[in-house]
Description:
about 500 residues, alpha+beta, Elongation Factor Tu (Ef-tu), domain 3, six-stranded antiparallel beta barrel, about 55% helix, HlyD family secretion protein, membrane, MFP, coiled coil
Amino acid sequence: xxxxxxxxxxxxxxxxxxxxxxxxxxxxxxxxxxxxxxxxxxxxxxxxxxxxxxxxxxxxxxxxxxxxxxxxxxxxxxxxxxxxxxxxxxxxxxxxxxxxxxxxxxxxxxxxxxxxxxxxxxxxxxxxxxxxxxxxxxxxxxxxxxxxxxxxxxxxxxxxxxxxxxxxxxxxxxxxxxxxxxxxxxxxxxxxxxxxxxxxxxxxxxxxxxxxxxxxxxxxxxxxxxxxxxxxxxxxxxxxxxxxxxxxxxxxxxxxxxxxxxxxxxxxxxxxxxxxxxxxxxxxxxxxxxxxxxxxxxxxxxxxxxxxxxxxxxxxxxxxxxxxxxxxxxxxxxxxxxxxxxxxxxxxxxxxxxxxxxxxxxxxxxxxxxxxxxxxxxxxxxxxxxxxxxxxxxxxxxxxxxxxxxxxxxxxxxxxxxxxxxxxxxxxxxxxxxxxxxxxxxxxxxxxxxxxxxxxxxxxxxxxxxxxxxxxxxxxxxxxxxxxxxxxxxxxx
Length: 493
């Protein structure tokens, strides 16, 4: 060792401490990787928890949409669309004509058949009326003839009765005369002034006079009975045979006239029924020939299912109108919130022009038929979720309509809103993240309506400024020298 020192050995300077720096960096890289992995795992765990747990117990839901009942305007008849004034998104009022449909190919067989039957019934009715009038005229003439002959017979019977009464008086006188002769001869026989043989012829003559008186009385009574029957309209006797035949004929004609009257009423009723059917058939054909599709109430046209010149069938949908005055909100909540979101619960509504509302119904699920009754289909639910129907407060809705603008139109059907239960504690994480993004965008003086593009542009600009502000004389590691040009190229792009 002494020889080495003597030979001019000079101690070398102490080594620099610079080579120890890469060792420190080597120990720092695993720590950074470990911290990054833990951070990424923590963020993923937080995202999974916020995606699963909060929807189960959240008092807020942004899966809510403004909906309204839809009125389907269908074609009342089959035909061709002549005019169509309905346009999607257009406002309509009550009784506005949205379309006109005409049909020139109508089946008029029923109307022609009814008109033929009505013509036949009218002819039968006219014939029956003519026969009835003829029978009535014939009966009138027979009444006149019977009345005239009855008057003549009454006069004859009166004269015969007077004659018979005279004959009865004559017979009474003759019988009195014969009785006096008989009495005188009886006295003469009693004094033996005459024989009994002379009394017998006288007694016989007296008996004949009495019988003649009885016969005249009988004939008188017969004529009196005939006159009484004639006055009562009873035609009995040899003298009343012709009159009785006329009266019988009169009864037959009168009976036929009554039958014609009944037939006339029947034919008139049949004709009235046929005319009513013809009137109804003409009205039906008029309705089928042309029809207007009218709006049942005010609203907005949602969709149009026809076009001018197109042939449609009865029942085809021409247009659908949304009744914006009956809007409501459909929100999706977890089954666990079913008890808290029972009907009558007050909620807050953000968006759609609403501020508050009341839960009107809770539905576990829906169907396609139910969705067809509304303008917007209900959002799709997952397992253990339910629908909450919310009726907005009337004052808030009126204010929204009054203050409607281009950004918030009066009819906000189909717009997504956020529903929060009053006094709710647990928010929806999707709403929280969205509001946090808007807050970050507002802090960076960006437009919240377009945070993605603006944030990307601002980040690229700041990165480029930071890279350009580095001093040129600072010694960078060899790794940094290879990475910097690439970063500048990316920032420039």
